Every structure is written in structure tokens, then in C-alpha cells.
Protein: Glutamate--tRNA ligase
Organism: Candidatus Brevifilum fermentans
Amino acid sequence: MKGSTVIVRTRFAPSPTGYMHIGNLRTALFAYLTARRNNGVFILRIEDTDQERNIPEALAAIYASLALAGLDYDEGPGKDGGHGPYVQSERLDIYKAHAERLLASGGAFRCFCKKDDTGQEDAEPVRRDPCRFLTEHEIKTKINAGESFVIRQRIPESGSTTFVDEVYGEITIENSQLDDQVLLKSDGFPTYNFANVVDDHLMDITHVMRGQEYLSSTPKYNLLYESFGWPIPIYVHLPLIVKADGSKFSKRLGDPSFEDLVRMGYLPEAIVNYIALLGWNPGDEREFFTLADLERVFSIDQINKSSAAFSFDKLTWINGEHIRALSGDEFHTLAEKYYPDELSQFDTRKISRLMQVRTEKLTDIPQAVAFFYDLPECDVSLYQHEKSKCTPQISLDVLRSVLPVLEELEVWDNDSLLQALKAFIQARGYKVGTVMWPIRTALSCVLVTPGGATELADILGKEETLRRIKAGIEKLENAAK
């Protein structure tokens, strides 16, 4: 590292081949938090060397997802100053020069095998590629004949490679189990396995964070570092994210991406909070974290080895906690985007105050508020409620009795409604629920509402409240005949 003080430098290096899946988001988050916790640098690098799989819109999705999650990078595409942009397709000359260095030192060799020889052009043949044994004369003859070639890593034929991972400890793999992997393809583009090693060194990356699935490839990376005479970074491999049945959580298998979860009504900050808990333990009972909280407390040594099970129930609970932590104005701004146009005839701020304490996902909002402007057909069975001591007949008696009280009420707001109904309850000797249940049912015709009877009546207004209570009376009377 340059200078006397080592600055922690981490990177997130996505390929623009799809949308931000949950594993990618967690890798980005942990790399970001490691940098922030240590006053370091967080780098974005676009690894777009797999030209056939690149999706143009995926690049925009990467930038949008990082911004939405609040993971602001210090160096990389679009950043002023620093050493960016870090886009691998713009760095081909760098990889070519380093591949030639390996050829000169014996750490790599040219492979002229074609599809007919290996089953796939530029593919990984079994263990030791036959071209590694070509003489200089044979190599020059093939080059002069215009034969195309790839550059492969020359893996030692014996011995083993040992490395230490911050999560999984010391790991040793026999070199005989490693392939002579392709470093530079015949079209001049590097493979991921080569470009990421070169870039991590040139960008002074101190901590390499990636998924557990890369553990088996790490010895090949270390052999490259050794061939170049470079220091090896600190490795932090992250445990798998799995579903309840133990299978891998994967966008490819239909599991939602980060963008999908946002569209499903989850707040970005709640998703980030939950993703942080997939494989990391804060060391206490806390589960609610803002990004700023995580920047202060995250530590690599608290990352778990075991797979982390993704739970929609847990994510939904955390999302509800984040919704309730918003200010009233913040929630109202979010909720308005989900309010149908028909709701504009009511005081939506009052509705938002009711919805905030009861909303788990933003996408639940449209259905939850629909009864305000579109009263559903009222099933008489809704008036039956054991806890409130209500039956359809008792509900009918209550509505008939309370209607004149409400008709005579001059000031129509929640406080006035509460006072009037408390006086009515006391005078008639009813239990509170016995009165409030049938009123709330008549006003909503649904089992669960975002507020109580007086709150709904306040929002609906006197005229609409009385109309709905009269319709409820008529419904119950017809059912009793």
C-alpha cells in the first residue's frame, strides 16, 4: 500500500447482466459499511467484460439501486476527482499488458485449443491444458499461421495453496484441483477472474468482500498475486442467502430483486436494515437500524459462517417499524402516491395519520382505504362480534338508538363524536365495544379498518356517516325479517 498509513479501501464490482439481487445488495452494503466504519474509501467498479451477457438497462439499475439504498460511493463512474471511472471495458490495454507480463514470467501460457478440442471456445478444459506444454517453436508457428489463442493461468502441478478468510478461517486447496483458467480471451477481453485481481491491486483494495461461492476460486487469485509479486488483500467471504427450504435465494429462480421489493411496498431503508441482518449479528437484541446506525456498529468479526434464511415475515415486520419511525409528513408524502384519485374528496392527512400506525407495506394502502369512497356490500355476519358482545340484533338496536344522537350533533369532529358516544354509552349502560363495533361496521363494511368508529366518522363527514348508518339499519332490518 502507498504511504505509511493503510487506508481501508473496499469495492463493489457488479456485472451489468441483470438487476440488483439481494446477494449483490448485501455485498455492496457490507463493503460500504466496512469502509465507512473505518473512515475508508468505497469504490464502485463496473465489471462489464462479459459482453454477450451485458444488459444496457442493467447499468442504470445498478446506479439507481445504490442511490436508492443510500450507498454513496467515493470513487467510480460519474464521480469527479479520484481515479474513476472504473469500467473494465475501458481498461483493456491494462489487462493485456498484465497478461503479457505473466507470459514473460511463466505464470501464464497461450492456449490455441478450439471448440472442437475443448467443447467450447475459451472454455476451461480439465485441470491441465495441453497447450501449456507447447515449445516456443510450436507457439511461434501457430501465431505465424494466424491461429487465435487465449491466455491461461499456469497453475503449479503440485503442492497446495493456503489462504485465510476473515469469516471461514484458514483454507487449503490442493493445486491439482485447480484449473488452468482463462485470463484473457481471444477477443482481447479479460475474464472476471483475471480483471478483478488486476483491478483490486491497482485500486489498492484492502478488503475483498464477495459471496461464499468464490471461496473455491480464491487460491487461483492468490497464485496470480504471487506471480505478480503483489500483496494479497484481506478476504471476507459472505454466507449464502437461502429460502426457508434451504435452497439458494436467487433472482434467476424467480426470487425478488431489490427493485422488486421496493415495488412490493418495502421502504429502501427497511430492506437495507433487513439485508444487514442476513449473515451479520450486532451482538445484542437490536434489530432496528438506520444506515447511519449500521455505519457506526458494523464489524466484520460479527459476520456469521452459516447460511442466512430470507424471511418475508421478518422483512415485513422491520418495514412496519421503519414506517412508524417516519415523521407524519414523511409518511403522508409516501402514502399519497398510493392513494386512489377518488380519495381526494376526503382529508387525506387524517387518513395518513390512521394508516401510518397500521401499515406494514405501502402497497397495502390502496385496498385498506378503498371503503372510504367505495363502500362494499355489507355482510350481516360482520355485525356479529363475540368480544364486543354484538349480534346482528344488538347491532340493529344500537344503530337505531345512536342515529338520533349523531343527527343532533352540531360540531362534527373526532373529539365531539367521542364525547357524544361516551355520554350515550354511559346513559344506556352499554359496553364501549358494543356501540363502536356496529358503527364502525356500518361505516366500512370491512373487518379491519385503519381507525375506530369516531375517526372514520370524522373523515367521512356527517352526511355520509348518517347515510351509511341508515343503510346499515336497513340491511339489518331486512335480514331480521
Notes: The longest helix spans residues 462-480. Residues 116-126 have pLDDT under 50 and may be disordered. The domain at 375-480 is CATH 1.10.10.350 (Arc Repressor Mutant, subunit A). DSSP finds 19 helices and eleven strands in the chain.
